[in-house]
Design brief:
The protein has helices at about 25-40, 55-60, 70-75, 95-105, 170-185, 205-215, 230-240, 250-265, 305-315, 320-335, 350-360; strands at about 10-20, 45-50, 80-85, 110-115, 135-140, 150-155, 160-165, 190-195, 225-230, 245-250, 270-275, 280-285. It is of the alpha/beta class and about 350 residues long. Helix 6 (about 205-215) links the parallel strand 8 (about 190-195) and strand 9. Bound molecules: nicotinamide-adenine-dinucleotide (NAD).
Length: about 350
């Protein structure tokens, strides 16, 4: 079955590259190198345009997300390859919030896709689990929930202080992420979708999730639909991850369960993600942050960013090139050609060069 891409860009694509801060600036060039290597052997064209948005620019010019940036990205680019943001010189993290949250919300990137895939048995902390046992996709709602910043303080900084944070769930928002999860399962011939909420305690917001889930699942009779409360899901993912193909949940729970998944599959250095609106400019970023504790040392693991690029190529409809990146990462892990966080002794550029060579020789 041929799988329709989420973005029809044809044989040529334009990619905005925002490497950001810290190790974002070290791992992103390795990703670009790997992509270039993957497409040279295919009849594809790709143009990368770099943007220097991040802490340096913010401190120098007071600019985080420049005026007109969102419209420019939406109109002129197919996708954004993102590194990481965060710098100890900007304790408020204002620039990161402006850029990353600004793009997520203003580009309406409602799908946060976080694949969990164990590439090598030795990388999981779970006993007696092998690579075939841990392979599922987490879809986190990315534009609503508890992260919309609706709320306030009452009697702030007094002993009687009250803080309120509202959980915002729209029918449209819930429906489109649940539908996306089912569509993904159908497109990829996966059998099971699990929706997770806390409807036993959150009896308004997650009642809506329940009702929408029951309505949408009717349209996908070939897919086994299941519901688990988030606390049960957290236990079950650890007890037996083989039960899951696709998980869909709200912003807060998705944030947590996908990090749990990342640890089951080798940790932060390996975890990719996509912030997606099907058909529109979407943003792809490794899950890790800017890691100031190792920035500048040349030892950051570039594999999370390279797997992220694989997701981006899939999104563009360039699946075989995406597979080439994933296969090269799998080989690097098998041959232990890895950075110190995975027990190796290689540097960021060394690993990046190795991946690019492996991809180019396929
Ligand atoms: N999406 C993003 O841009 C993003 C995400 C998370 C954190 N941050 C920001 O990054 C900064 C640092 O945050 P943090 O320390 O909590 O998280 P972090 O992910 O940057 O680092 C956590 C730990 O994992 C290690 N690590 C992370 N990525 C690695 C890699 N590729 N290779 C090897 N080791 C790696 C780090 O050295 C550190 O010990 C903060 O400013 C935070 O706000 C940004």
């Amino acid at each position: 079955m041929s799988v329709k891409p989420l973005r029809e860009c044809g044989p040529a694509a334009r990619i905005a590259v925002i490497a950001g801060d810290g190790i974002g600036k070290e791992v992103t060039p390795e990703s670009v190198k790997a992509i270039r290597s993957a497409i040279t052997s295919a009849r594809r064209q790709i143009e990368f345009v770099e943007f220097d948005w991040g802490a340096d620019k913010f401190l120098r010019e007071g600019v985080s997300l420049p005026a007109g940036a969102v419209e420019m990205l939406a109109n002129e680019f197919d996708a954004i390859l993102f590194g990481a943001l965060g710098d100890p010189r900007v304790p408020s993290n204002q620039h990161a919030a402006d850029i990353l949250l600004g793009l997520r919300f203003k580009l309406d990137l409602f799908v946060n896709a976080r694949p969990v895939e164990l590439f090598h048995d030795r990388l999981t902390p779970l006993r007696d689990r092998s690579a075939n046992d841990i392979r599922f996709m987490v879809f986190r709602e990315n534009t609503e929930g508890l992260y919309v910043g609706v709320g306030g303080f009452f009697k702030k900084d007094t002993p009687d202080e009250i803080a309120v944070q509202e959980d915002v769930n729209s029918r449209k928002g819930v429906e489109r992420i649940i539908r996306h999860a089912f569509d993904y399962a159908r497109r990829n011939q996966l059998k099971r979708v699990c929706m997770s909420d806390k409807s036993n305690a959150m009896n308004f917001a997650h009642d809506l999730w329940q009702r929408v889930f029951k309505q949408v699942l009717q349209e996908y009779p070939e897919i086994e639909s299941r519901h688990l409360y988030i606390d049960t899901l957290a236990m079950e993912v650890v007890r037996d991850p083989r039960q899951f193909d696709v998980i869909v949940t709200c912003n807060l729970f998705g944030d947590i369960i996908s990090d749990l998944g990342a640890q089951l599959a080798g940790g932060l250095g390996l975890a990719p993600s996509g912030n997606i609106h099907p058909g529109r400019t979407s943003l792809f970023e490794p899950v890790h942050g800017s890691a100031p504790n190792i920035a500048g040392k040349g030892i950051a693991n570039p594999l999370g960013s390279i797997l992220t690029s694989g997701m981006m190529l899939d999104f563009l409809g360039w699946k075989s090139e995406g597979d080439a990146l994933r296969n090269a990462v799998r080989s690097a892990l098998q041959e232990n050609f890895v950075t110190p966080d995975l027990g190796g002794d290689k540097g960021t550029v060394e690993v990046g060069d190795w991946i690019a060579a492996r991809v180019g020789s396929r």
